[in-house]
Amino acid sequence: MRHFLWFLFLIFSFAQLPLEAEGLLLWEDCLWIGLERNVHLKLEKTKSELFPILLKEKWKQYLPKLGVHYFGIFSRNKEQIDQEYRDVRIQIQQMIYDGGETEREKQKIEIKQLIQAEEKKIIREKVFRSISNHYFNANKRLFIDLIFQMRKDRYTLEREKQKTEVASGTIAPKEEKVGRIWEAEFESKRIQAKSQYLLANLELKQSMFLEPDEVFQLEPGFLERIQIYPPISTVTETDENHPLRKKSRLQLELVSLEEKSLENDWKPKFLLGGYVGRNGNSGFPLQNEIYGISFGVQANLGGSSVSSNSQNGTQSEGNGIQRIPGYGPQPVGPGENSYQSGSFGLFDEMGREKKRFDVHLSHEQAYLEKSQNELILKNNSKATEIKLSEAYQKYLLYLDCTKAAISNLKKKRWERNLALISELEYMKMEEEVFLPFEMAIDHYFTYLSYALEMALYLGEDPFSNRYYHLKQEKSNHELVMILKDWSFSNPFKKNQSTEPNLMKPNPFLWEEGYEKR
Q1: Angle formed by the axes of helices 101-168 and 39-48, to 10°?
Q2: Contact call for residues 146 and 14 (beta carbons, < 8 A)
Q3: Closest Cα partner for 470 from 172, 229, 148, 280?
């Protein structure tokens, strides 16, 4: 009797549950925990921190390069005059034109950042769907396990009554033996249902990245918080901003920038620089002022490289040293000092054609992936739509069968009350209710699973869309009302709680701005 009362309490909790109950997890709670603990999402978050650093580095190329340079020569040799020379200067160099390459490199990083954001959303949707499906399965197994527990408690009471009747000689012992065969079959199913419920909870924990020994309970009443709608028969189109589609478009943009970089690599780069400082031949403080400007050109012509540099400087007094690239330090005197240099490397970029081929291959690959993703989205959404309609029709079919079986069982109640049939025979007839009822429950949760998948394909809210709506308040649910009608001689009536449940913000849409669809 104690187990039966415990079961009745759980049945009542489907209709009304105190809000202050602790340790009971809603669908939203499971999603929050799973999304927060998922290691793949954590890794993607770490990857996303790299792109601001790369963008900052690219922005620095627009800034002038500033540095302090020191140069010294000392000579103290026998039979030679001692020499001492020091040179300290502040140098600056600015890229004044690079053919737009720096801007394209910055755009590439931004697109890669967006691609990584779409990959993160793809992973998030997979995690979201996995946790939700395991949550649905755990609730389904909980519901079926409660039905078995109800039937087990009622059968236990009948067995105790039957033993008393055998002892008193009211019924023959052979009738008890017949009941034991049915009892063994039923107990086997009940054990299997309990095992499936425990496994479903374990799988839910695994999807949430929880330890197997961590204890939590699902809040009863999930069925009374969700309302399903018939699937729409009109043609449905997948979301234009689905992460797979956006990722494909962004990959094509990235390849397009790579092609532009290759097409514009012939444009010269112009660099302008200068320096100001002091030098001297007798230690600090340095006596002579120096300053100058420099100009450089770099270009690629059909795989050949061209570079030119020139520097013009002025020294106020004394002797100085001018450092000429490729020739080393050269002595200079007061006044204007300059040099020019140039080089032409003939076909020194042997990998240019390889670059062209790689860019062309990347373009083909990105285009083919885009076409493949479009085909995958269309086929998967169409297949899911067919399965969705099938699950809903089967749910209605077995729901009608369950209602018809309950109506027939009510007639058997009348025969049982008149002692025309035994309680054990009556409970055996309940199998005609349980089998279609279990199938109705199974197809109901299957419908929810496919409906969630379709909502993600269509880009709709996974908590409220054209297929179902998750409510804050609890209300009557057909499956729960059928269970109550089946459980008691008279339909169970109880005022439903209209007080809303406290819900956390939507864990699916709580994302950074650039990550939203």
Answers
A1: 170
A2: no
A3: 229
Rounded to whole angstroms, how far apart are CA atoms 476 and 221?
A: 10
Closest by CA to 391, choosing from 456, 444, 434, 465, is 444
Question: Taking the CA atoms of the chain, what radius of gyration do you get in angstroms?
Answer: 40
Taking all residues of the chain, what is their mean pLDDT, rounded to a whole number?
Answer: 80
Q: What single-letter amino acid sits at 451?
A: A
How far, in whole angstroms, is CA 215 from its chain's centroid? 26
Identify the CA nearest to 272 among candidates 294, 297, 298: 294
**Entry pTM:** 0.79
Nearest one of 442, 369, 433 to 150, comparing CA atoms: 433
Nearest of 438, 443, 484, 428 to residue 193 by alpha carbon:
438
pLDDT at 441: 95
CB 231 within 8 A of CB 25: no
Residue 63: count other Cβ atoms within 10 Å of its Cβ: 9
- pLDDT at site 10: 38
DSSP 515: G
Q: What are phi and psi of 88, to 5 degrees?
A: -125, 125
Question: CB count, 10 Å around CB of 211?
Answer: 8
> In 3D, which of 434, 441, 433 has the Cα closest to residue 409?
433
Residue 77: burial class (beta carbons within 10 Å; 0-12, 13-18, 19+): exposed
Cβ atoms of 317 and 286 within 8 Å: the answer is no
pLDDT for res 230: 93
Closest CA relative to residue 111, chosen from 239, 217, 246: 246
Asked if 476 and 16 touch (Cβ cutoff 8 Å), the reply is: no
Q: What is the C-alpha separation between 248 and 118, in angstroms, rounded?
A: 10
Contacts of 104 (CB under 8 A, 6+ apart): 257, 260, 261
**Predicted pLDDT of residue 299:** 82
Regions of the chain short of the pLDDT cut 70: 1-23, 80-82, 157-180, 235, 302-303, 323-328, 347-351, 423, 487-517
Q: Which backbone phi and psi does 93 adopt, to 5 degrees?
A: -145, 135
Asked whether 169 and 456 are in contact (CB, 8 A), the reply is no
pLDDT in tens, 423-439: 677 777 788 888 999 99
All domains of the chain, ordered by start, with CATH? 2-49+109-251+357-515 (1.20.1600.10), 50-108+266-355 (no CATH)
Q: Do the Cβ atoms of 446 and 467 come closer than 8 Å?
A: no
- Look at residue 514 in the predicted model and tell me its pLDDT: 36
- Among candidates 78, 230, 208, 81, which has minimal Cα distance to 133? 208
Q: What is the 3-state secondary structure (H, E, C) of 58-114?
A: HHHCCCCEEEEEEEEEEECCCCCCCEEEEEEEEEEEEEEECCCHHHHHHHHHHHHHH
